[in-house]
Amino acid sequence: MNTLRHAGRTALVTGAGSGIGQATVLRLAKEGATVVGCDVDTAGLEATEQLLAAESCKAHLITADITAQADVDRVVAALPGGWVDLLANVAGVMDHFLPVTELADDVWDRVIAVNLTGPMRLCRAVIPAMRTTGSGAIVNVSSIGGLTGSVAGTAYVSSKHGLIGLTRSLAFLYGPDGIRTNAICPGAVRTNIGRTASPEVEWAYRRMEQSFARTTRTAESDEIAALISWLGSAEANNVNGAVITADGGWMS
């Protein structure tokens, strides 16, 4: 493994204020990348800044909401030279395990906006420059909820299935241009996504608990960040359109 595999490269990471996004910023910076990271959580970004400083690393961190097109434009405009080698769409929210009969429009709209529309807008923004250079990697963090309906509510499951569809569409359409797009499907990971994961409908959560019993382990955020780094590097040049589970065997 090349520990400076991203030297001279530029990466854009969403969800940079905590969890997998924060771990990805740290890992890519340590591996030599120039990193631009964004999050809605300013305090979280400050924590990321402190962690970077402790590693003698730097990143350009921006408070931004990927559900707002103006913020997406602002983040992309911050990329040095206006181009990026690796886009890691990590930001995500849960839906309180709500079944469709209990699902309010505002929850649906927010979950789809963060988990699917935001990544689409970022892909749309960076792909033209990638096509010009003839290279680029996009890694979308989906979920095992993108493979099954048994681990989250209707909005989350729909958004993560949609993110896999987006991944496969981009891989097919832009692969010939030298752009690779892959998806990762984590299982249980230690992150602060729990803010939107408190169950609100007892009967639905009880049904999902049957699936939770198959969990073998909870991953650390950096374990997922390591996979993002590899997929975004030249070491994975033959990997395009892949949907990779990183769930400790939950879905086996």
Automatic annotation (TrEMBL):
Which terms are listed as keywords in the entry?
Answer: Oxidoreductase
Give the superkingdom in one word. Answer: Bacteria
Q: Which InterPro entries match?
A: NAD(P)-bd_dom_sf, Sc_DH/Rdtase_CS, SDR_fam
Residue spans making up a coiled coil are none
Task: Keyword check for Oxidoreductase, yes or no.
Answer: yes
Which family does the record claim for this protein? Belongs to the short-chain dehydrogenases/reductases (SDR) family.
Report the protein name in the record: SDR family oxidoreductase
Q: Which organism is it from?
A: Dactylosporangium fulvum
Taxonomic lineage: Bacteria, Bacillati, Actinomycetota, Actinomycetes, Micromonosporales
